[in-house]
Design goal:
By secondary structure, the protein is mostly helical. It is built from 3 helices and no strands. The relative contact order is 0.06.
Length: about 90
């Protein structure tokens, strides 16, 4: 009949022993959410648009583009250095 916990399943839980599947899914979802939260706050998540660099760090190509935009180098020098980079 009724056991100590007030159900008639005889202690089997959800669906005659399949409760462990839901427990694994539950903890998997919790772990996934924590990882997604950590990756989102650290800026290393997917599709961040950082071109492989961290916050505040400029790549050599970024610096080269800035120098060209400021007029420190001409187009020929820009193209030559760009080719050297990559």
């Amino acid at each position: 009949m009724w056991n100590y916990f007030g159900n008639m399943m005889g202690g089997w839980g959800w669906g005659f022993g399949f409760g462990w599947i839901f427990m694994i899914l539950f903890w998997g979802l919790i772990i996934w959410a924590i990882v997604a939260l950590v990756r989102g706050t650290s800026g290393h998540g997917c599709c961040g648009g950082h071109n492989g660099s961290s916050h505040g760090e400029k790549t050599a190509l970024d610096i080269l583009k800035e120098r060209y935009a400021k007029g420190e180098i001409n187009k020929e020098e820009f193209e030559m250095k760009k080719k050297d980079l990559g």
